[in-house]
């Protein structure tokens, strides 16, 4: 996992460490996978809230599709953490839109998510192999 530093614990501020790889692997993502979904969508293309709400349910994650309030709350949290930044875009028609784009820190965070997902898949595959060795299907 090139470029990812494995660390755990809390940041100097006392808040949970945003790049706590061991916690991601151990506990899995929280809040219905909203954060990795949004980071992925915004990395793919800068986007605005309504468009992200339309796209988030198309990604292959378990559980319910996050509602609009959860998405907007997560966007504010991501921006507050410096993982995305926003700017207002004024079109010829309709209201101005707040467009989000990923930051280098957000890209690093998305890479941490994918690394944690890969590690969980490897652990699950090892468990499945053990079960199959015992004759379970």
Topology overview:
Blueprint: H1 21-27, H2 34-44, E1 47-48, H3 49-56, H4 68-80, E2 84-89, E3 97-102, H5 104-133
Antiparallel strand pairs: 1-3, 2-3
Task: Provide a descriptive summary of the structure in words.
- By secondary structure, this protein is mainly alpha-helical.
- The protein has helices at 21-27, 34-44, 49-56, 68-80, 104-133; strands at 47-48, 84-89, 97-102.
- Strands 1-3-2 form a 3-stranded antiparallel sheet.
- A hairpin with a 7-residue loop joins strand 2 (84-89) and strand 3 (97-102).
- Helix 2 packs across helix 5 (104-133) and helix 3 crosses helix 4.
- The longest helix is centred in the last third of the chain and has 30 residues, at 104-133.
Rg over CA atoms: 17 Å
What percent of the residues sit in helical stretches (DSSP H or I)? 40-55%
Largest sheet: 3 strands, antiparallel
Mean of pLDDT:
84
Strand order, main sheet: write it out. 1-3-2
Q: pLDDT under 50 segments (min length 5)?
A: 1-5
State the end-to-end CA separation.
31 Å
Give me the count of strands.
Answer: 3
Order of SSEs: HHEHHEEH
Give descriptors for this structure.
single chain, 137 residues, mainly alpha, three-stranded antiparallel sheet, 5 helices, 3 strands, disordered N terminus
Q: What can be said about this structure in brief?
A:
By secondary structure, the protein is mainly alpha-helical. It contains five helices and three strands; from the N terminus they run ααβααββα. The longest helix is centred in the C-terminal third of the chain and has 30 residues.
């Amino acid at each position: 996992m090139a470029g990812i530093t494995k660390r755990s614990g809390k940041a100097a501020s006392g808040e949970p460490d945003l790049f706590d790889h061991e916690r991601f692997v151990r506990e899995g993502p929280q809040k219905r996978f909203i954060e990795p979904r949004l980071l992925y969508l915004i990395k793919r293309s800068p986007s605005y809230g309504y468009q992200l709400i339309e796209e988030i349910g198309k990604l292959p994650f378990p559980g319910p599709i996050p509602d609009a309030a959860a998405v907007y709350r997560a966007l504010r949290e991501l921006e507050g953490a410096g993982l995305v930044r926003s700017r207002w875009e004024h079109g010829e028609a309709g209201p101005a839109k707040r467009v989000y784009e990923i930051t280098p820190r957000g890209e690093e965070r998305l890479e941490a998510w994918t690394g944690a997902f890969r590690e969980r898949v490897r652990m699950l595959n090892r468990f499945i192999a053990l079960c199959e060795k015992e004759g379970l299907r």
